Amino acid sequence: MRFKGGLVWVRADEAGALVLDNDGRAEMKYRESDAKSYRPSPGNLTPDSGEAAALPEAPREVLRSEAGEAGKRPEKKTRAHHAATGAKSGLPGGAIEIWTDGACSGNPGPMGLGVVVIDGDERREVGEYLGEGTNNIAELTAIERGIELGGANREDGRRFRIYTDSSYAIGVLSKGWKAKANQELIARIKRRLAALPRVEFVKVAGHAGVPENERCDELATAAVLGRPRR
């Protein structure tokens, strides 16, 4: 199955139907080995079909329950192939998804960032302690680090889609908002953005159960909590 364009593991019965909890939500993981699972609405999951045959060399699995319901045979695992997220856009390989978040314990205070980059079947994660500063600096720096991790110097024409829950960051980087602070950082990020073939910002709701945003928050918060102590 797919969640927001990315291939995920979901719990399903032997017939391939989603197994839902008492609240009518599915169980989803980004990797089979992940200890943490998420509970998306079934309406936010889509089948990995159609375009999948175009990339048979990149197989991924869909999570099935190992223990069947009472009176049923144990559920089994099947394979699903990666479908290019850019199949409809015509871009080679689809968009590179960059999920970012910044954390700050106090404002100002100790800062951290979390970044998840999804490039087809490849996934990279970074959590980094940034020192003392503000939440806005953490959010902006997370975007800068995401661009670096996504391959800022690549020349294959790929689109970059940057997800953030910071209206401030989107405003000063893409909407012409006038920044009274952090001008040097903003100017540097804008230069990086201008060097990319195509960039799209996507505003997501923070702390609203969006899996990749939640993961970025976890990485950023862990970086702050694990900072060097004086």
How confident overall, as mean pLDDT? 78
DSSP helix count? Answer: 4
Q: What is the CATH C level class of the largest domain, in words?
A: Alpha Beta
Helix-strand makeup class: alpha+beta
Largest sheet: 5 strands, mixed
Second CATH tier, the architecture of the largest domain: 2-Layer Sandwich
Q: What percent of residues adopt helix (DSSP H or I)?
A: 10-25%
Instruction: Provide the domain count.
Output: 2
- The CATH homologous superfamily of the largest domain: Ribonuclease H-like superfamily/Ribonuclease H
Order of helices and strands: EEEEEEEEEEHEHHEH
Straight-line distance between termini: 46 Å
Strand order across the largest sheet: 10-9-8-11-12
For the CA atoms, what is the radius of gyration?
19 Å
Please tell me what the overall shape is: globular
Quaternary structure classification: single chain
Count the E strands. 12
How does this model look, in words?
There is one protein chain. This protein is α+β, with helices and mostly antiparallel strands. It has 2 domains: 1-83, no CATH class; 96-225, Ribonuclease H-like superfamily/Ribonuclease H (Nucleotidyltransferase, domain 5). Helices cover 22% and strands 27% of the residues. The chain contains 4 helices and 12 strands, in the order E-E-E-E-E-E-E-E-E-E-H-E-H-H-E-H. It has a 5-stranded mixed beta sheet with strand order 10-9-8-11-12. A 3-stranded antiparallel beta sheet has the order 2-1-5, with no helix packed on it. Strand 9 and strand 10 form a beta hairpin. The radius of gyration is 19 Å and the shape is globular.
